[in-house]
Amino acid sequence: MCGRNFEYFSEDPYLAGKLAAAYIRGMEQLGVGTSLKHFAVNNQETRRMTMNSQIDDRALREIYLKPFEIAVKEGKPTTVMASYNRVNGEYSCANKFLLTDILRNEWGFEGAVISDWGAAIDVVQCIKAGMDLEMPDSLGIHTKQILDAIKKKTLTMEELDRAVDQVVNLVTTLAPKRKKVTIDYQKQHEIAVNLACESAVLLKNEGVLPLDKQCPVLVIGDLAVNMRFQGGGSSHITTAKTKNTVEALKESGIEVAYVKGYDKEKDETIPELEEEAVRLARAQMPILFFGGLTEQVEGEGYDRKTLQIPECQIHLLNRLYAVNNKIIVVTLGGGPMLMPFLPKVKAVLHMYLGGQGVGEACARLLLGQVNPSGKLAETFPRSLDDVPNKEFYAPDSDDVEYRESIFVGYRYYDTFHVPVLFEFGYGLSYTTFAYSQLEVEQTMYTQGTLKVRCTISNTGDYIGKEIVQVYVVNPKSTYLRAHKELRGFTKVELKPGESKVVEIVLPEDSFCLYDVKQGKYIMPSGKYKICVGASSQDIRLEQEIQVEGVHYDVDQRTECATYFQLEQEKGKTIESNAFQVLYGKPFSQFDAVKKGEYTIYHSLQTLGKHSKVNRLALRLIKALYYRMNKGKPKTDPGVQMIISALCEGPLDCVICASDGMFPLRIGEALVLIANGHCFKAMGRLLRK
């Protein structure tokens, strides 16, 4: 449901960490500094600047910190960007436990820690916690706070020097590597096309794909021509070139008829567009319907309200079924979506947001010039009702409870036997693959890496690539643990009839969990299964092994976890008292702020709870922004992002990022008014 899912690698921490580490290594080898973000537990856009992620220690370590740990240790990024949100009560940029104790002392990170844009709440505490560089420049506001802290000795010169040294090191390390280069845009574009081909996932195919090149096709959907190939907000870039799928199909010699069908910027039916689409559909040509998530429903600064694609697309598809049953759906989007059309269509090709080469990649895949080989990096649920944290995600509150704990994605669905639309790791091909001859290096495991080998054979008629996945099934226990977890994967290319032996090396922590009492990872003894398959649910080979580790005692915390599991199995809401014991500390009460307690670190939305003046100020600021962006609808992704920041962002952040348009004294006056000090507020406004 996160509006920014298109920026996240996977629901699985191991996969996310491995993909991030590879990305970082590739960039750093070119002399380009990378920034690993957003550290940490940044999983919603609603109130993203003030929310407090309340998460138990096991989930924090095993799910949310693990991908960062892998990326830092294996990728060695130049910088790590701390997120807006609080983690267990402390803002990430001022969180010494995250930035110093874990990132630097445990993981050995030697680069610079930078803030997200305007996330340096209480800049002095941020520096003391381990942040080195604030983004953006505060126009002197925070500089004064730092100098005052030095004078008052609440910030030491050693702490400030550490941060300054990191910033200077960035410049001296990276600046000499900057040089004028000649870019071969065509070569880069072809790489983009190939990446999009590798990443697309074939979700359904009743023998209609690849397309017959001799057969004309009808393409329907605004997204076929105005293709959505990237996310909105701060990730939005201008590309050197793009080509849509209609253009690419025509260049390949396919006879194509195209009709818009709907307007991607409006979730409303447009009768004349629908009528034209239905009329052409009656000709019984194969239909390529392009749909999915638009920028209006997912983007930076706002979360999705539903798992459905826009209703106008569903309405049009329903009309098309009635006159033509040869429909192939191509979906675009940055996250999971419901597919009520799935039983009625012949094929579904999911392109995600495939970058500037997505149009040509889509054409190559549809025509069979490239065989689809991508796999889902996240689970597609059947319904929002099946999602374990549906009642606690993105609430109208700064206090957010991660009650699902370690049961994220397939860890939940597999453990509690909840049917899904498409499981984690799922993806079809135009060919078929056979798995055989599983070999596990040790059947009595004690320590070190573990080599797993098997033979993969192409038993179909097309050259293809298979992503071989290795899962570890954990022994049954009285404590909190997922049924199975991804521990390794590799991609192999095979010609028809060809076989290859693949070897996957499982990391040393493949059988470990984080023990809260000892504050470290431990390996419980027991009988585990090594499972090799084509997805988390399509297991082809398995072998049991004995792991000799430690006896894991059941204490009050894990007894609570057993209750937690029973509550899930009954299909009930996870009780607050059960999570309270699992969480192990008092819940935050950041919503309980009263008049007299407001500070510059509260949002205008929060200040407005007890102040008509602040509510009026917020309305005026929003009206001014809309006026400055006259011609853009309120649903425009960029507009939605800024409006959410103005409403939900701490005043300090809004002021520092306003480039002087919102003076500090006005913000301070608004805080005084919210606290009931109107005369002091007038004095602050009059004082320069």
Describe the protein in words.
This protein is α/β, with parallel strands linked by helices and about 700 residues long. Helices cover about 35% and strands about 20% of the residues. The protein is built from 21 helices and 26 strands. Strands 8-13-12-11-9-10 form a six-stranded mixed sheet, with helices on both faces. α9 packs across α12, α17 packs antiparallel against α18 and α20 runs antiparallel to α21. The mean pLDDT is about 95.
Helix content: 25-40%
Proportion of residues in extended strands: 15-25%
Overall 3D geometry?
Answer: globular
> Strand order across the biggest sheet?
8-13-12-11-9-10
Number of DSSP E strands: 26
Report the C-alpha radius of gyration, rounded: 27 Å
Give the low-confidence spans: none
Average pLDDT level: 93
The chain-level structural class is alpha/beta
Please give the alpha-carbon distance between the first and last residues. 45 Å
Describe the biggest sheet? 6 strands, mixed
